[in-house]
Every structure is written in structure tokens, then in C-alpha cells.
Design brief:
Helix content is 31%, strand content 21%. By secondary structure, it is an alpha/beta fold. The strands form 3 sheets. It has a 5-stranded antiparallel sheet with strand order 1-2-3-4-5. A 5-stranded mixed sheet has the order 7-6-8-11-12, sandwiched between helices. The relative contact order is 0.11.
Length: 233
């Protein structure tokens, strides 16, 4: 059970890096090239308020801000664009990803809610999508709490990974958790043969969305896992 009395005491706001400049202002060519290579458009830059830090702790990094339902910054993700960077990603150190819903400002809980791992994947997928900032969903996360409250239709769009034991779809693990919490309308969208949704050409995204599979029980997950194992051979 998620303890709301504890949640109230958690800090769920932060500030963007002092060096953050919205890309429509900075127009940094290195940053823009990195985005355009991933098929992130000018329209996406405005929609997601993507910025860039030229100096400071987050030097030569793209910045993807997050805003809560009231429009207040509650998180951000950064991605290095310089080959000189040894750490590809940096996140705030004063707030936990479990306490926020990335860009809840843009989420309609009465519509299909899509879950994915990172911000570039979310941008590629489109509207009403929440990047989880990772491969799993903690039991005490704000995302899970809101999903339990609203019980929307959920499309799970996580990466696929190859391990020593074979092909692993993280979506199966997440679907199993959502079923255990009583969610009733869960679908899985597999990016295979691509590793993640960020690698899928944007023109093909609607086709992948159409190939979603309904999850009604753990038996559905078992059959899906067997099917994916066969695909990986």
C-alpha cells in the first residue's frame, strides 16, 4: 500500500539548471543536430520545452524539463551531446523520480496513458505518454498511485533487452505489477525487432501502436513471453 501521509512530506519541486536556455533562444547547432538525428522536431522542442546548457555542471547537455499538474517544475533529465562527457545522463539530486509524474501537466487520465522508459522514447511515441525514467515502477511511486486512482487504459511501451538468459521484455514485468494492483485495461506494445521506441522510425510508430496486445491475466503474459522468446531465436 502507498502511504500518502509519508508522501505529503516529500519534496516534489525543483529548479532547472541555472544555465538552462530554451533551444528556441540558444539555437545551439550541436544540440539541434543531436535532436534531429533522433527525429525530434522543432514542434517537439516547443512542446517538451527542450533546452540546452552550454556551461556549468550540466555543460553541453540537452535538458528535458518536467512540470507537475500545476505547471511547476518537478524534475528534469539531461543528456550529453559532447563526446567529451563521460556521464551520459544527469538528473536532479534534490527530488526522487518516484515522487513525480514526468510532465503530468500534459496528461489526461481519462485517455489512454502510455508508459515508456526515457524522454526521447516518449517524444517519439507522441501524446499522453509518461517516461518512467527507468525500466521499472516502484511500489511507492506517484505514477503507480495515480494509475490506481484513475484506472485508465494503459499501453506499456518499454525497451527490450538481450541478457545472458535470452530476450527480456521489461513490459511483461510491469504488466504483471499493474495486474497485481488491480488495473483492468492493460496492453503491451513490443518494439521488436528494434531495441527501443527511440530507434523506431517515426513513420512506423502508428503501425507498432496498432499491434498492441491485450493483457487480461498472467496467462497472457506467459504466452507473450514464450512468443517473444521464439522471435529472439
Amino acid at each position: 500500500m502507498i502511504d500518502d501521509s509519508v508522501r505529503i512530506e516529500r519534496k516534489v519541486t525543483t529548479h532547472l539548471p541555472a544555465e538552462y536556455v530554451f533551444l528556441s533562444v540558444s539555437r545551439n547547432r550541436q544540440a539541434l543536430d543531436a535532436l534531429f538525428e533522433r527525429e525530434i522536431s522543432v514542434e517537439d522542442i516547443y512542446k517538451w520545452k527542450i533546452g540546452f546548457c552550454k556551461s556549468g555542471k550540466h555543460w553541453e547537455r540537452l535538458v528535458f524539463p518536467s512540470f507537475n499538474a500545476n505547471g511547476i517544475c518537478n524534475y528534469y533529465a539531461t543528456r550529453a551531446v559532447s563526446p567529451k562527457q563521460t556521464v551520459p545522463y544527469l538528473i536532479p539530486d534534490d527530488v526522487s523520480k518516484n515522487d513525480i509524474i514526468f510532465n503530468e501537466l500534459n496528461i489526461d487520465w481519462n485517455e489512454v496513458v502510455k508508459l515508456t522508459e526515457g524522454v526521447p522514447d516518449a517524444i517519439k511515441i507522441g501524446d499522453n505518454v509518461i517516461p518512467l525514467m527507468g525500466k521499472s515502477l516502484a511500489d511507492d511511486s506517484e505514477v503507480l498511485r495515480k494509475l490506481c486512482i484513475y484506472d485508465p487504459t494503459v499501453w506499456i511501451c518499454l525497451d527490450t533487452d538481450r541478457t545472458k538468459k535470452g530476450y527480456v521484455n521489461r513490459s511483461i514485468k510491469l504488466a504483471e505489477k499493474l495486474l497485481s494492483y488491480g488495473l483492468t485495461d492493460i496492453w503491451i506494445i513490443d518494439p521488436f525487432p528494434f531495441k527501443d521506441f527511440g530507434e523506431i522510425p517515426k513513420i512506423l510508430i502508428p503501425e507498432f501502436m496498432e499491434n498492441k496486445k491485450k493483457i487480461n491475466s498472467k496467462f497472457d503474459l506467459l504466452f507473450l513471453e514464450l512468443e517473444q522468446m521464439e522471435n529472439s531465436l
